[in-house]
Amino acid sequence: MTARHTVSTLALAVFIAVAIATSGAQQTSTAQPDSTSPWKQTTTPWGDPNLQGVWRYEAAIPLERPARFEGRESLSDEEVKESQRLEDEQAKQRLAGAEGAAVGRRSVAESPIRGNEYNSFWQDHGRPRQVFRQTSLVVDPKDGRLPYTPDARKAEARSSARYGAGPYESYLDPDTGERCLTDGVTALMWQGPNGGHNRIVQSQGYVTILHEEYLDRRVIPTDGRSHGTIRQWFGDAVGKWEGSTFVVDTINFIDRTNYEWASIFTRPSETLHIVERFTRTGADAMEYRITVEDPTTFEKPWTAVIPITRLADGTQIYEYACHEGNYAMTNLLAGGRVDAAKRPR
Amino acid sequence: MRRHFPGVMRYSIPFVVMSALAMPAAVLAHHAFAAEFDSSKPFKIRGTIVKMEWINPHTWLHLDVKRPDGKTERWMIEGGPPNALYRRGFNKDSLPQGAELVVEGFRAKDGSLKGNGRELTFADGRRLFVGSSGTGAPNDGKDPQGSKE
Amino acid sequence: MTRQLRSSVVGVVVAAVVVALGAMWLFQTTTTSQSASQAYQPARTADGKPDLNGIWQALNTANFDIQGHAARPGLALMPAAPRSGVAGLVRATHVELPHPSVRPLGAVGGVPAGESVVEGDEIPYQPWAVAKKKENFDHWLERDPEIKCYMPGVPRATYMPYPFQILQGTDKIVMAYEFAGASRTVHLDTVPDSPAPTWMGWSRGRWEGDSLVVEVTDFNEDTWFDRAGNFHSDALHVTERYTPTSADHLMYEATIEDPKVFSRPWKIRMPLYRRIEQGKKLLEYKCVEFVEEMMYGHLGVVDPATGQKNK
């Protein structure tokens, strides 16, 4: 074996060891608050409630209420228990599949979650997802569904039909995420292609949210200033503290409704207004409540409540260089030209 | 990107009953596999690593492949998402320059020397799965586009 | 002289001497503080550290060229043929003209004169690298990552003509740059190594007196130091120092080490100025959508700028 092969074998061995070790560590840091020691809100040295850390949405609640839960806002105790049991089983499967495939003990054909190692890698579900009573993230309107205007509903149906299918005739045809622009700010705290990690850093007079994907970043002043007037993709945000709750009000979004969006509900328009409430409810738990009002896309305001989990100390956010090597764009366009050439004239 | 939408993920778990309560997993719809790559054009090549580009959402592996006629071709292979790979302990030393690899995957639609990698096999036989799933790529769990569940 | 008068005179003389000595002492103390900017005592954060919070901006031409340079006619140049056969010319000389791609910009496409921010004005390139830098300069339009809205790297992000914000937490300091929305997290706590090379580097910070010292490593080779083609390899190691010198100024120094490209370390130095406007905020410069036509317009079936099919 050459030195290089020794190195790569050693690297894989380290990889196995680390993967096993971290999977163990991950499973101990679930979001269920520790009931033995009561949690107390800590503050920063300048007296603001402390929300700092790397946070992520780790639950299994769908955004909109599935048809089978129509009319029901909550699961029953038995349903919660059964869901958790299934999650634990499925997590074991994903872990076994992801670990096995990753460390090269087996091929795709031999994996217990055949064909979904990739998914597991992407969403980093080495631990079971959490089960909550909510049947949807959307809690208002009461039916748990997004109140699209008729035009926006058509736009959403069109966007779903196009996704992954195109046609891709120019760089304007992929969605804003595929263009390495952004997926918008609306779902920033709970979605993301690589699992949606967010680091919150607090400094005197500001709360900063660093989203791992797309260089998305929010620097939110808390000094009571009024809104600025410059329109931006992420609007203009001002924050204030109401007791221990961080309240953010954002307006002055730039209109990008003429771009393709993977999810219409995150697209900014000039009439978009977002109010968010961040309330830490435990050492590792936060309730994130978002109310979205936008007559351009929705018939009435809607509110979603998302339980967010604080990941273990030492969790890192990594650089997301997307536009710096957007080969997918060139490949999509090359594929688009091949398709166009094949189409009958 | 529609990578994060909660949705139904169908995969074979023989001994776990898919009850009515099985909460849908996060759908990982990889954008446009079919728009970039051709599932009817699988390939298998052996090469040495020239460079790894740590790009999101896909890494890109540059390989020098020696052809039977003695010429060397430069291939680009789309790999897994780096930030998720880092969290699994994968780093720049896992794919060092000069390492020999066998890569299996699907060729770019336009016939260029690019592909979507599915499995990498190192010279010592170890394998690393980096392929795409839920995209319409062969042998994958289906991607239920448009499902909001 | 009477005894009374003598004691009065003595008293006055003593008082005058005391006043004079006092004045001299005061004068010396004042000049000492003024001449040694290190003596400035910065405001402190609630956790007792020098307070670097704020929106800052460099005011120089370093992003054009970190070395001293005369004004030149174009962001990109092309040499024109020597001018011979012209009455009055003693010898034939060539002229540098703006490249066709920047010519429509006129004076906006020129480069203003500027002093060097490089100590000694010399960048100690290894012999092979001198040629590479010139090649970069000559091919600026195709090669400068700034033009494509790529992340600018360190230290270039500091002195691009956009403000940046220092957000000073207790164990992390975020440096938020306006250009391309690039950010860095400076880890004051202990963190593992970066798993892979990056555009903005991996930053570890510590306090040395009133200075924030940041060691930045794990760069890729893809960023430049300026628009003049000054470059580095993936062995780059930058040591930055941010020192408050007044309520509204920081002195910024960066030592550059890269054994693959340079024959020794070298250093840049410049003041950073606080943006003092009431309610000043960092604004977005999401430039990716400004460069797509340039990068991809010709690649699809249709060019959006013209509506015509691409060949």
- Please, how many domains of chain C? 2
Mean pLDDT of chain C equals 91
Give the termini distance of chain A in whole angstroms: 57 Å
- In the residues of chain A, how many domains can be counted? 2
Account of the protein in words:
The complex is a heterotrimer of chains A (345), B (149) and C (311). Chain A has 345 residues and is an alpha+beta fold. Chain A is built from five helices and ten strands; from the N terminus they run H-E-H-H-E-H-E-E-E-E-E-E-E-E-H. Chain A folds into two domains: 59 residues, no CATH class; 191 residues, no CATH class. In chain A, a hairpin with a 5-residue loop joins strand 4 and strand 5. Chain A is globular, with a radius of gyration of 22 Å. Chain A starts with a helix and ends with a helix. Chain B has 149 residues and is mainly beta. In chain B, strands 1-2-3-5-4 form a five-stranded mixed β-barrel. Chain B has two helices and six strands; from the N terminus they run H-E-E-E-H-E-E-E. By secondary structure, chain C is of the alpha+beta class. Chain C folds into two domains: 198 residues, no CATH class; 39 residues, no CATH class. Chain C has five helices and eleven strands, in the order H-E-E-E-H-H-H-E-E-E-E-E-E-E-E-H. In chain C, the strands form two sheets. In chain C, strands 1-4-5-6-7-8-9-10-11 form a nine-stranded mixed barrel. Chain C is extended, with a radius of gyration of 27 Å. The termini of chain C are far apart. About 2% of the residues of chain C have low confidence.
